């Protein structure tokens, strides 16, 4: 049985919550039958049976998630072998319910087998030192493959998957990640990110799927399905993060507060998280930031009113790194740690990620419970959700993994899938005079630029290390130079270069120059880029190569779209995002024409600097000038192919719908060129008259189809009419979004039809 359907059934709302409350208030007298250890008992029965046996100390312990670093080496971030003294402190004394590996936290020897052994050791210790034999749940940031594990396949980062517009492919990459994660004994993955990418200054832009809520939400839902789809091995829980509004700090700096109007929040920011929650995600991670003056970690509106009451989420809410403590020490919304714990738990946090702070948190939480700042009922509710997760993941019944299988399951797993994902993520933005693909006349290709032979920056942040692959560590993978050289067609010579002067000199005898430019790998705040543009020396390199008069193809390997300056307007321009360990092969496949590019921009590509945030769904303004007009270098959805397509003939299954109905759109698409290709078919909706303001168009649904040369097909795209919902009312309105009756324009390509909502 698929894990997602299994968990959905077991979690069926509101059955679990109701069953828990019922059994909690009427604890059975037959205290001696340990029903919680019986795998045949239902999850609610097991949870309530266990819960009634637990002391307050044990319950409070379940609320905390501690970093593995706290139990390695000297127990203060030295890394190294597990240290039994600290394991005792964390797992036995404080009864910690969960352990995590944040970016870069690995076993002393970083192999899949060692990961499995490390997790098993912690698990065994926890179970054997727990009076009630309660297992831990181990969480990791496997955000593009099992990326902390040396030798694992490193997939494109989410933004690249966004460029594929391919839900099935996204699901498959997540299934691959599930297999790898599960093989190492870890059962909780802090992915996917459902934040929308709207401010290109923000350091975590590349961790998102798209600027558009429908594209981001659809792909996040696919990722959840893939991660929780138990294709083999143990189940893994997905995490929808960072709930909510993390991606738009007011000044583009990570974790700076955001000011988001209720309308923007409800209509644009929340829907992708909702899509991922609706896909059955078992956990949600909270935004570290503050929205409209309220830290998300302490927001009852977000974590309870929206997530639980409106969306009926039944799983576990975990706070982000240290954020509960930060309510006191950074946000100062309380004058004590105790108050901070109470504020977070009462707002709706079930588990606190307090990486080094098992003792402090435990004390503060006990204190909060002792002072009745957290009710017993709320404590039991949070603990019940955590225990339910552990039962759902099979941790009580099957706590260990077989380390002997880990290496084979993880090392370079699913390389063909990884190469396909990287290939479909590539967006061809410019192809003057059919400069690409390189033909038989291309005898010598010079490959230049700082990203040409640079796996570290190609795979990006969150790879082995938090910021980047640490110095001295080599991961398996193919750089652009290696890919072009090793897969060159007979008769084509590929040469690398040793710097800008060498590149320019070598270009003199080249038929084509591939210049790979982009960004340095980094993560979180260290990746913030107040002015998102290509570095001046790289712009200069491209300008010098252009001046040679040779055919120049720019490949941008970057964590966001960049203003390119003179590096634009070359013969060819390929956006490669952070394409992962197969990126070099994928880029070679496209440049040599073995693959026909099919990626489309999931975000807007800026024409210059100074226009952040940047996204296509801009509302109408009155100056008509640069301030409000949408003038990107390449708009959302842009992307070329080696063949040509037409999109037209939009028709609606029903021209009149009600807000609860599904809108079904038929679109006729043709491949009018000479080779097979995949086409993204976006369907947009606009309104001629709208109050509140509406952007000229917004994505409502999409499809991706394969078309043989000369083929015409009719594609069906369906979406719920509820996607058209907006927050009604005047400036301060907080009403729930609803679909305004009236006329909507449904369009694809140049064709449109009128939809009436009654
Ligand atoms: C902080 C990051 O914000 C979050 O994305 C990540 O999952 C956790 N740390 C755990 O490493």
Structure description:
α2 (15-25) packs parallel to α3, α12 crosses α13 (337-347) and α19 (480-486) crosses α22. The protein has 22 helices and 24 strands. Helix content is 31%, strand content 17%. The strands form six sheets. Strands 11-16-15-14-12-13 form a six-stranded mixed β-sheet, with helices on both faces. It has a five-stranded parallel β-sheet with strand order 4-3-2-1-10. Strands 18-24-23-20-21 form a five-stranded mixed β-sheet. The protein has 758 residues and is an alpha/beta fold. It is globular. It folds into three domains: 3-63 and 138-398, Glycoside hydrolase, family 3, N-terminal domain (TIM Barrel, Alpha-Beta Barrel); 417-591, Rossmann fold, CATH 3.40.50; 645-757, Immunoglobulins (Immunoglobulin-like), CATH 2.60.40. The longest helix has 17 residues, at 112-128. Mean pLDDT is 95; it is low at 1-30. 1-deoxynojirimycin binds next to loops.
What order do the helices and strands come in, and which of them pair?
Blueprint: H1 3-11, H2 15-25, H3 43-51, H4 56-62, E1 64-67, H5 84-93, E2 98-101, H6 112-128, E3 137-140, H7 158-164, H8 167-183, E4 188-189, H9 213-228, E5 239-243, H10 262-278, E6 283-286, E7 290-291, E8 294-295, H11 300-310, E9 316-318, H12 323-329, H13 337-347, E10 352-353, H14 358-370, H15 376-392, H16 406-410, H17 415-425, E11 427-431, E12 444-448, H18 455-459, H19 480-486, E13 493-496, H20 500-507, E14 512-518, H21 536-547, E15 551-557, E16 572-575, H22 583-591, E17 645-652, E18 656-657, E19 662-671, E20 677-686, E21 698-707, E22 712-720, E23 742-748, E24 751-757
Parallel strand pairs: 1-2, 1-10, 2-3, 3-4, 5-6, 6-9, 12-13, 12-14, 14-15, 15-16, 18-24
Antiparallel strand pairs: 7-8, 11-16, 17-19, 19-22, 20-21, 20-23, 23-24
Helix pairs in contact: 2-3, 3-15, 4-14, 7-17, 8-9, 8-17, 9-10, 12-13, 13-14, 17-22, 19-22
Bound molecules: 1-deoxynojirimycin (NOJ).
Residues 100, 102-103, 141, 190, 241, 288, 320-321 line the site of 1-deoxynojirimycin.
């Amino acid at each position: 049985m698929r894990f997602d359907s299994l968990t959905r059934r077991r979690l069926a709302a509101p059955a679990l919550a109701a069953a828990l409350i019922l059994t909690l208030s009427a604890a059975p007298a037959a205290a001696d039958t340990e029903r919680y250890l019986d795998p045949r008992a239902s999850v609610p029965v097991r949870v309530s049976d266990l819960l009634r046996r637990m002391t307050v100390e044990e319950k409070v312990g379940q609320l905390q998630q501690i970093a593995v670093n706290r139990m390695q080496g000297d127990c203060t971030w030295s890394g190294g072998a597990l240290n039994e003294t600290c394991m005792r402190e964390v797992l036995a004394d404080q009864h910690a319910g969960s352990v995590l590996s944040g970016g870069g936290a690995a076993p002393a020897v970083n192999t899949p087998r060692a990961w499995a052994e490390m997790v098993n050791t912690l698990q065994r210790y926890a179970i054997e030192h727990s009076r009630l034999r309660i297992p831990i749940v181990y969480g990791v940031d496997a955000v593009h493959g099992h990326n902390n594990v040396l030798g694992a396949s490193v997939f494109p980062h989410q933004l690249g998957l966004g460029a594929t517009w391919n839900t099935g492919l996204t699901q498959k990459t997540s299934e691959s990640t599930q297999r790898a994660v599960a093989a190492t004994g870890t059962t909780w993955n802090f992915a996917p990110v459902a934040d929308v990418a709207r401010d290109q200054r923000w350091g975590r832009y590349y961790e998102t799927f798209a600027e558009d809520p429908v594209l981001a939400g659809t792909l996040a839902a696919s990722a959840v399905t893939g991660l929780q789809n138990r294709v083999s091995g143990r189940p893994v829980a997905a995490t929808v993060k960072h709930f909510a509004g993390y991606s738009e700090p007011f000044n583009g700096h990570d974790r700076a507060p955001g000011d988001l109007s209720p309308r923007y929040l409800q209509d644009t920011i929340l829907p992708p998280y909702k899509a991922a929650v609706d896909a059955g995600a078992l956990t949600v991670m909270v935004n570290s930031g503050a929205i409209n003056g309220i830290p998300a970690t302490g927001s009852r509106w977000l974590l309870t009113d929206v997530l639980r009451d409106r969306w009926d989420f039944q799983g576990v809410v975990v706070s982000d790194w240290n954020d509960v403590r930060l309510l006191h020490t950074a946000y100062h919304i309380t004058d004590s740690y105790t108050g901070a714990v109470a504020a977070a738990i009462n707002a709706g946090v079930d588990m606190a990620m307090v990486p080094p702070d098992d003792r402090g948190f435990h004390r503060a939480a006990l204190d909060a419970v002792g002072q009745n700042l957290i009710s017993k009922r709320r404590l039991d509710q949070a603990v019940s959700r955590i225990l339910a997760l552990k039962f759902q993941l099979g941790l009580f019944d099957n706590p260990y993994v077989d380390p002997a299988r880990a290496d084979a399951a993880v090392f370079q797993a699913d390389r063909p899938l990884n190469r396909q994902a990287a290939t479909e993520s590539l967006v061809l933005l410019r192809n003057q005079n059919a400069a690409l693909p390189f033909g038989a006349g291309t005898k010598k290709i010079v490959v230049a630029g700082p990203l040409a032979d640079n796996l570290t920056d190609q795979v990006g942040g969150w790879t082995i290390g938090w910021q980047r692959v640490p110095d001295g560590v080599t991961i398996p993978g193919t750089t652009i130079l290696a890919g072009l050289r090793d897969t060159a067609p007979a008769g084509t010579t590929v040469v690398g270069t040793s710097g800008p002067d060498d590149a320019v000199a070598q270009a003199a005898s080249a038929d084509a120059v591939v210049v790979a430019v982009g960004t340095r790998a980094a993560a979180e705040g260290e990746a913030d880029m107040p002015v998102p543009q290509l570095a001046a020396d790289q712009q200069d390199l491209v300008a010098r190569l252009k001046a040679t008069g040779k055919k120049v193809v720019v490949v941008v390997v970057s964590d966001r779209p960049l203003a390119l300056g003179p590096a634009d307007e070359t013969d060819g321009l390929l956006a490669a995002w952070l394409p992962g360990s197969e990126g070099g092969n994928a880029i070679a496949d496209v440049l040599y024409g073995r693959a026909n590019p099919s990626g489309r921009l999931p975000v807007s590509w800026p024409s210059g600097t100074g226009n952040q945030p940047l996204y296509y769904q801009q509302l109408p303004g009155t100056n008509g000038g640069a301030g409000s007009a949408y003038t990107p270098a390449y708009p959302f959805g842009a992307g070329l192919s080696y063949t040509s397509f037409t999109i037209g003939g939009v028709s609606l299954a029903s021209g009149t719908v009600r807000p609860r109905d599904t809108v079904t759109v038929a679109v006729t698409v043709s491949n009018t060129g000479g080779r097979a290709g995949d086409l993204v078919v976006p369907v947009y909706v606009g309104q001629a008259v709208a109050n509140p303001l509406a952007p000229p168009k917004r994505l409502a649904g999409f499809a991706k189809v394969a078309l043989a040369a000369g083929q015409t097909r009719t594609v069906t795209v369906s979406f719920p009419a509820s996607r058209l919902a907006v927050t009604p009312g005047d400036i301060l309105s907080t009403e729930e979004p609803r679909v305004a009756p009236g006329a909507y324009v449904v369009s694809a390509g140049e064709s449109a039809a009128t939809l009436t909502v009654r």
